[in-house]
Amino acid sequence: MASKFRYRYGDTKPVKCRVSSSFPIEEGDIVCLDVATGVVKPAKTYVSTIQAVAAIGAASIVQALVGKHCMGIAMQKVGVQSGEKTFRINPDEGYCMVATGGVFEMDCAANDSIIDTATVIAAGNLEGAMLGIAATTGVVTDSQKVEGVTDAAACIGFVRQQRPDLLQTNQDRTVVIMELSPGAPYGGAGRLGLKGAGTYTNVSGDT
């Protein structure tokens, strides 16, 4: 997908990550840390790299891998896609600024079975639902698309208060407001991994 400004508000906690010219990154891409090379790659490319070594079937396994190794969301475009021509894109060659926090507007599928049902919307319990990379069997087709997940291992963020026009009762929303909570900067389990004993429900008053 082409670069898109997805940031909405909040502290992005940016970090400078190494990149490779072989793996172009678009602004707005969810990026993962390839621990073998030390560079970040778009989620789609990262999963393709893993698939080349060991075939992965279930979408849930793909989502858990992205959840564990997600570094955050790219804040700038790096490199050129096939067919693109440019003379200079990134003044800090070899690196990309990546947001590890903040709130972003991400793409999602209409009629998402977890976050986009009439029951969920009517009940008003959309806030705090877990989000992961959108995946089908062994494949990520879009590094800027998320979907509702139930496995904490796959979680890269949480649904936050939606724009009024996103709260309609018919299920046709194709964007969702997400608070980013990547796995890689927090030891592989997002901010959920920082919690000690007790319970955590991602709302105020957790114990």
How would you describe this protein?
The chain is 14% helix and 24% strand. It has 207 residues and is of the alpha+beta class. The protein has one domain. The strands form 2 sheets. A 5-stranded mixed beta barrel has the order 7-9-8-10-11. The chain has a 5-stranded antiparallel sheet with strand order 2-6-5-3-4.
How many domains is the backbone divided into? Answer: 1
Which term fits the overall shape?
A: globular
Arrangement of strands in the largest sheet: 7-9-8-10-11
Radius of gyration: 17 Å
**Main β-sheet, in a few words?**
5 strands, mixed, barrel
Mean pLDDT: 78
H/E element order: EEEEHHEEEHEEEE
N/C terminus separation: 40 Å
- Determine the structural class based on helices, strands and strand pairing: alpha+beta
List keywords for this structure.
single chain; alpha+beta; 11 strands
Give the topology, please.
Blueprint: E1 7-9, E2 15-18, E3 30-34, E4 39-42, H1 43-53, H2 59-69, E5 70-74, E6 95-99, E7 103-108, H3 118-123, E8 130-133, E9 145-148, E10 157-159, E11 175-180
Parallel strand pairs: 7-9
Antiparallel strand pairs: 1-7, 2-6, 3-4, 3-5, 5-6, 7-11, 8-9, 8-10, 10-11
